[in-house]
Write the structure tokens for this entry.
Amino acid sequence: MLEIRNLTKRFGDFEAVKDVSISVPDGAFLVLLGPSGCGKTTLLRMLAGLELPTAGQIVFDGQTVSDGDRGWTVDPAKRNSGLVFQSYALWPHMSVRGNVEWPLKVMNMPRAQRAERVAEVLTLLDIAALADRYPNEISGGQQQRVAIARTIAPKPGVLLFDEPLSNLDAKLRVEMRTELMRLHRATGATTVYVTHDQIEAMTMASHVAVMNQGRVQQFGTPADLVDHPETAFVATFVGTPANNMVPVVKNGSGYRVGGRHMPLTPPADECLAMYRAEKMTLSDNEGERTLPMELVETSAIAGRVMITGLSEGLRLTAIMDTLPNAQIGDTVQFCLPAEPDGWFDPDGERIG
Ligand SMILES: Nc1ncnc2c1ncn2[C@@H]1O[C@H](COP(=O)(O)OP(=O)(O)OP(=O)(O)O)[C@@H](O)[C@H]1O
Ligand SMILES: [Mg+2]
């Protein structure tokens, strides 16, 4: 069990992490997902013991390892966690084997046992053939595997990853994603994985904490986030493509969307309506639920097409079976479904 209780981190007056509480069961794969600067690395560094919380506690397996309220933390080396950074530094003067063996030497593991564990980990990461090479003799992706092998060699109870795949090309990223999930199943170690890539989060996680501006906006399974986003931020950050969010304003006895009157029954005078891209359609003619928009993007995904329109700052995306009979730059009619898939207040809190 990994428990984070009311964790806060301030740098001077600036609150980088604000009152975060999360708990996940042993063996979970927790992803911290959010845009640049939202506090992911700061939270991970507190989990690693590299940063002392300003307030709140971190508890691994029932044992408190950091207590910001008492200004106390267990030394990083003594907390049974392994950390892989985005910029992994391998020892250039040590072979692949030497790099992986190094943390085991530090913990005074006997020689024979070390050799056995190194062989096991190199095989697990499919780099046994590279054991005698030096870091400058292997590719970036292989170096990344070595860094991961080195981290898991001492069998940490908690594995911490900070955007470990961000400097790989798209294909290798997808392959390594699968490898890391396999590794997670093989080791059973509770894993905390930081990324700003929602696809990575949605494919790898057992639990996701979506963060924005230091706060956890929503914590749940990937399916929870897709099925019931609790804030407009989550609704527009998660999903491929993300949900459409349309401002609705009361106007006389009716409601207006993007300058047009619409037959809607929102729960408040001013709110945001969420529409899933797969429920949007394009219409040949103007109708009571259509919005004229400039066609700005089309792209093929998995046998369907994603169509994006733009009008006065409002961006809408529809997933359709066929391309519209229009060119980029033409005006097309986006048609809203009769009922939105959710309502949010102007601050982004869900209200229906
Ligand atoms: N040592 C520090 N002193 C002052 N401010 C800091 C410090 N470390 C981080 N910050 C600030 O805290 C905020 C969160 O930083 P953090 O590195 O946790 O973001 P992140 O979510 O990991 O972003 P990215 O995706 O870009 O890596 C940022 O605004 C950052 O500038
Ligand atoms: Mg970061």
The chain has two domains: 2-237, 244-344. Residues 11, 14, 16, 34, 36-42, 196 surround adenosine-5'-triphosphate (ligand 1) (CB under 6 Å). The chain has eight helices and 21 strands.
